Amino acid sequence: MALKIEHLSGGYAGTTVIKDVNLTIEPGQALGLIGLNGAGKSTTIKHLLGLIRMQKGTISLNGVQLMQNPTKFKQMVAYIPETPILYPELTLKEHIELVMLTYGLDKEKAWVRAHELCKMFRLDNKLDWLPINFSKGMKQKVMIVTSFLADSDLLVIDEPFTGLDPLAVANFIDLIKQAVSQKKMVLMTTHVLAQAQEAVQKFAVLNNGTIEVEGSLEQIRKHYGLSDSDSIDRLYQILNQEQLHHE
Ligand SMILES: Nc1ncnc2c1ncn2[C@@H]1O[C@H](COP(=O)(O)OP(=O)(O)OP(=O)(O)O)[C@@H](O)[C@H]1O
């Protein structure tokens, strides 16, 4: 039982962006994938979701290989994209019902959870609203509510904190922690390391398409020679210098 990305190479027609990426997430573990803009974080996620074709390697979740059984694999995954993807003609209530149908959830139990989640994000009186009426942050909250409702084994989250108010960020972090305590797996990409650290035990630094180092934020600090008084965001300056040196 784990997510295993092994020797993954891939990218877009004719170009290799990701090179020999290896990552494992055990049940009850959240991994933060970090790196400069363009390092390949979203590309890794696109591979994980089966949206683009890998060039080499394997991805398996709980023993199910993505390439061999994509339907079964995807049933175990929920995804929160950086930019919310909602159906313009469906209300919040209908989005919730769609998730129940897609993931084969028990409607009665799922509605109890859905109300809980909607209340947490102050959406409980907006069940009949259409996406056009929601602000950017509200749309993001709808994605969070529907993804956590799915109760999947693996939660993939791209830049979770964009556009959320501090209250919603705190609730989101609590939900991730709760999922981890329930032995779920979480993969999140983020630039907001201080906040991510509250929910994530392990980070992996993606640099130029390869994993440069993996470990706790402390171990990553050490790897890049950061002192205790350095802000963790200095990591990005170091990665940038490395990249300039590389080019
Ligand atoms: N659809 C695409 N077609 C071709 N190249 C792409 C495409 N999307 C991304 N790339 C390239 O792949 C590389 C990695 O991009 P990716 O979006 O994975 O980076 P990222 O780490 O997620 O960056 P950010 O922090 O900005 O979201 C970049 O060089 C980018 O130009």
TrEMBL record:
MF GO annotations: ATP binding; ATP hydrolysis activity
Keyword presence, Nucleotide-binding: yes
PROSITE patterns named among the record's database cross-references: ABC_TRANSPORTER_1, ABC_TRANSPORTER_2
Source domain of life: Bacteria
Pfam hit, one: ABC_tran
Keywords from the UniProt entry: ATP-binding, Nucleotide-binding, Transport
PANTHER family membership: ABC TRANSPORTER ATP-BINDING PROTEIN ALBC-RELATED, ABC-TYPE TRANSPORTER ATP-BINDING PROTEIN ECSA
Name of this protein: ABC transporter, ATP-binding protein EcsA
UniProt organism field: Lactobacillus hominis DSM 23910 = CRBIP 24.179
